Amino acid sequence: MVKDYYQILCITRDAGAEEIKKAYRKLAMKFHPDLNRDDPRSVEYFRDITEAYGVLIDSEKRKRYDRDMARGFERETVFQDIFSRSEFREVFDDLPIRQEWLEKLLMVSRVFVYEALIYGGRPTDVLKRSVLRLAAAGAKRFFHSVMDIHEPILIPEEIASSGGYITIEYRPGFSKRRIKVSIPQSIKSGTVLRIAGMGRRNPSNKSGDLYLHVDIESS
Fold this sequence. Notes:
By secondary structure, the chain is an alpha+beta fold. The protein contains 10 helices and 5 strands.
């Protein structure tokens, strides 16, 4: 099915960039999913108007579209290109759209958005950095899933209330390790204390973290 991006944004075919942005902002507020929770179609409407905006605001895409309106555009690529260009993504500055919605609504990787917003650059450069960052993030998650240690600790009620120190023993490898742990004042059961670098150590001498899951000893 051929999409008429001009009709979707309710603009004429000679509309300029500012008119396109103004039309998009107006419709984005109208179809904002958070303001239309009772209408499940609002999510798809929001994606449609964003796709239309991404094509028409980009002069190269708009030329290709005007030459052949039946030509399709990959939606995810259109969304990524919006965030890779500061002059395109500024349209979101006036909209109450939280970053976590971008991934859900526009199917744009949070890593890609971070790369585009923080470092900018051409879409291909942003995409390459995003892939590398995703790979690094995956490796980091795997490392911590193996090298981190989770231990329960029981803290006396008095120390939990006033704060202080307790000594614990745990086994990061073949032998036990004894460490002194600082307990913050008014700590609650269910709190998790992270001690960086005190987990298991790999052959490269890199260590995971130690996570202490707190329970309070009743008097």
